[in-house]
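Notes to self after the Tuesday call (sharing in case useful).
The group wants a holo model before anyone commits to mutagenesis around the pocket. I volunteered. Ligand is adenosine-5'-diphosphate. Logging inputs and output together so the record is complete.
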Amino acid sequence: MRFSRSNPILVAFFFGGIILPTAILSVLSFRNIQNETFLAKKNFEESLKSFKKEVENVVQKEQRKILQETKAASQFLYEQPQNLLEFGNASSFKNVNGLSAIFLFNKETIVYPNIASHFYYESSKWPQTNYSSIEQQLFFEEINKTNEEKVKLARSIRLMQSPFQTKTEQVQNLLGLLRNFYQNKKYDEALHIISLLQQRPNLQSYLHYQLRESLQLLHFEILVELKRHEEAQNLCLLELNRFLQQPHINDISATRYFFETTFNQILSFEQLTQETREAFWNLRENFNRQLTHTEILYEHLPFFKKILSDHLSPKEGILYRFDGNDFFFRMSYPWLSGDQIVIGKINIEAYEARIRSQIQTVAREWKNIPYTITNVNNSILVGSIPENGMILEQQILGQDLSWTLTLYQKDQKEFRKETRHKMFLLYGLVSFSLITVLFGSFFMFRFLIQERKLLFMKSNFLSSVSHELKTPLTSIKMFAEMMAKGRVQKPEKIQEYSLLIGKESSRLENLIGAILSYTRMEHTSTAFKWERFDFGICAETVYNALVDIALQKPLEISSRIEKNLFVMGDYTSLYSLIQNLIENAIKYTNSPGSIFVQAYEENEKIVFSVTDTGIGIPSSEQKNIFNDFYRVGDEMTRSTKGSGLGLAIVKRVAETHKASISLQSRLGKGSTFTVRFKKAE
Ligand code: ADP
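Result:
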């Protein structure tokens, strides 16, 4: 670990800056993750609290909103029509979603609905309209009849008015006559009898209210049949005016029936002007609304009286009451000013729907909380009961509505499931980041060490190469100088020195050749000359050139080199591949030892192998020896001359020829390098 020793700052940076913080962070994260279930429970409790609060708030808020809307709507109640003329105008009545009716009082005097004011409460001052002229016109109109008919009619009436008859009998007879005329479509006569019945104040008292209404309706129908539309309209208006001014409402359903029928028929008249149609339309809407409100008021009269007189704390101004069927609320000061009182009848379905939708919006954000909201009848409005159904807490909501919010215990299994999910995710994430950091650091570290080694090897190479270059050069220079100065006279010495110069030169040549072929191979493969040739012959040539060197060591050397082993490749580079492998075998095998060189064909491949009984290569080094400038750091290698480029060249040549290299080696026993080439076609 030369690197670690020589770069303490870098190591400190690695451990102190990356590994240590990562390890601490991971430990802390793992510890935190283990607390997850506890946290989830605590979280759930906190969530429950917030949820409860939020639901309470939202219910209160919506209830207040409804009250605000009611207050705003109550302003319009003062503008509701009071007399016949106003009933024909379009009124601005404001509905409140959640209420089915709204009533306005001043102390105990009713302000709206106006038509109810005559019944139980002090009557307000109605503007009096004089309709007597219309009445005159309508009821005392001369009926256009022939004299003969007049006589007939007069006679029949006289007959019925016999002094022996009681008034009831007279009315009954007149009604019988009326029915008869109406059935026989003798409308004029029928009209005459109707006017007769209506004119006579002494007969009026005998007419039951409903009977009076039916007479008027009959009157109206006859006018419609006779296409006397305007008169029919007037009759309806007159009747409405009379109704508005009378001190009692005798029978709301009979009144409703009368006006519904007449208004609907009038609105179906074809000749109606746009203006009149609109007026009747408004009349119908306004009157119907008031009638409906009045009906509700009458249905709950005692209840209304009670709620009006109920004591109300001045702070609140709002009072909710349930009359057994319906919910009402009373709104007064400080919501409203002075003696104003508004009573709202709650339309429970719409009211609940409004609040429910608000709760649902809130609940959407709290998906994991089991809860229900139930109303007075115990039916669930929102939420659902969970499987275990263990109630945790109950709370009354919207006090006056008597809704109950029930919170349930969450299933233990659910907790575990939830946290397990989260824990898996967190464990996964932490482990992943830990592994990534560790792997990253490891590879970076390794890369730096390799880089460092490479640098070292390169500088080592340079020094060894320069040394290698210098040694033969020094000898050459020395021998040449000696001979030049004439110090060597003997011809046999001259021959010996010349041979030595030649030998050193070829060593130099070989070295330079290795460097050149290495750099050639490192930079490009385009310089290769691809040709088809016999690999066997090439191997034989190299083998023959090297045999002597092996024998000189001395080493046993033998071969089994076949012929006709054709490959596609670059002759020169394959030559140096073979040369490097055989040279290495010679270099790294001590005498006595043996070398065996083979070249043969097997399974469509050309196989070349060199086996030696040399020093062998430790398995930890086997993957490195093919790297540029790499040399095994043992004694034998150090004492053997070399550049660390031989096997790098072999590897590159093999790669460019798409050949595979394998190595079997055992330390101290020997090595076998095998290269498998693709056979040429
Ligand atoms: P060198 O010039 O050092 O021989 P090489 O690239 O040819 O460079 O070889 C790299 C290293 O592999 C050598 O330094 C040597 O330690 C080892 N090596 C190569 N061939 C053999 C072999 N046949 N037996 C033992 N060791 C070998």
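Two things stood out.
The CA atoms of residues 578 and 641 lie 18 Å apart.
Residues 580, 584-585, 587-588, 612, 614-617, 625, 630-632, 637, 642-648, 671 surround adenosine-5'-diphosphate (CB under 6 Å).
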